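Z., the sequence and structure:
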Amino acid sequence: MQYIKYLFLSFLGLVGIYLVVCLFGPGTIHTSESIYIHAEPMTIYEEVADFSRWKAWSPWEYRDSSVTDVTSGAPSGVGAHVDWTSDNSGSGWRHIEEATPGKHIKMSMFFGFGETYTGQFFFEPAGDSTKVTWTFDEAPVNFFFRGFMAIATVNKVNSNMYKEGLRLLKGIAESKPKTPSLATELVDLPDMYYIGKMFRGIKPEEMSQDLYSKTYDELFIVAGGPDSLAGSPISISHKFDMATGLMDVEIAVPVKRKLQVSGDITSGTIPGGSSVRYVHKGSYEELPNLWPVMMMSVASSHEMRWSPYEVYVSNPSDTPDPAQLITWLVVPVK
């Protein structure tokens, strides 16, 4: 009985010590680490926004070969989801709630028990490098868990893991071929009235020269002839679904005043203001390869305010050599 008494008193003493540790243990869990990576923001963003790429740099997945990922939802960015299981760490999930390409990612995280937590990535241009900040947003810790937090130095362990992950991410991003750049210019453009015709959910390969020609012929008639036009023909890319490859494209012509239209003909205004413009000289077939480079360049330093569009400055009937065609790629920005 005496032995049981001492054992019980020892247990109470340990409980008391643990409660004291809880009293002085950390009341929140929080991590924030940064690193400078010699790569463009979009290059790094793409590694983070796609959960299928995390195994190469996430410190937990890099160290634990038993981790199994099942991705679902969007392939990257908002809506991307991954459920993970591990022989060593249990199970959980991550889900991207917000994403601004080349700038920011916010995701919710669940580790199989307790609360849902928030993590974020920030990508800030810094000269010829990018400052990448990875955070585990501050969250309160249950009083009785504070003792474990103090004994296991959870915040310190997380900090070291984040540092390791950022170092691995740096190695991957800096080893990638540098994205070719375009000599763009920032211009101030006036409002542009236009009439057009919308093609929703269309495949890029369906946007044929014949489709453009027939549509422009129809629009020229509706506009009232050449004297009613205010510039070169355009096409506006209102939406592109990365998962399906389908686009919403409006083939249009600028007009001198806002026109009343009917049927499937549209009427609108491209709002004037700051725009990033690239002047391309060459075949129309080269344009699809230029747009990803253009959009990455814009995302690294600007915020888009309206749909990007193309201006076909040259008239193909007057310019028989495709290599001499002039096209503007324009992205309205804030």
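Residues 11-22 have pLDDT under 50 and may be disordered. Helices lie at 2-24, 41-49, 59-63, 143-151, 154-175, 209-223, 287-299.

Let me know what you think.
H.
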